[in-house]
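Sharing a chain and its predicted structure for anyone who wants a worked example. Both blocks are below, sequence first, tokens second.
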Amino acid sequence: MMTVNALRPADIIVSTTNANVSAVIRAGIGSSVSHSMIYVGGSNVIEAIERGVVRQPLAESLGHAVLAIALRRRNLTPKQQSDVIAYATRFIGRPYDTLGAAGSGTNTGRGGLLASLGCGISLAFCAAGTAEVRNNAKPENADKAFFCSELVARCFELAGAPVVEGSPSFTTPRHVRVANTLLYLGKLVDTPAPEPEVAFGSPL
């Protein structure tokens, strides 16, 4: 298990909790993690959460985590490292990209997940939903709002050190976790699943 002292600015942390929404995200993207953030030094991270892009203590961000893994971009220059932090800082206060997050977990394009769910509800919602997602994913809308892994991917892309292939709009926490551009550093949190309760006298 590693400590915060081993982290350096521009390291990436991927994590998950036992919350229902985390379980849904993990199931949807086929991953052990459901969130990602950028370590910016001083025991703080910048991340995109429900209330938007924020800077806050790492301890607060990992308060309910059951798994947290630290990663580092291979061959990151000092300038790129500084630029990642600068871009992440610039985006503080931007809103959360709910629409983008709903459509990010597909390989065929942003919005496929939302489209499949919406079309099951009604054809009217299907048409409107997919159109809105396509518009949301246009380059001119790239930096208006962010979901967690989109923020991570975009900051590294702008710094000239992309962590994934393709658009940040399509990037999920799983893409970040398995990216071959990143070096595995270790686990910051690894809480074992609780043991099943066994009634007295019952067989194990």
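Comments welcome. The domain at 4-94+148-190 is CATH 3.90.1720.10 (endopeptidase fold (from Nostoc punctiforme)).
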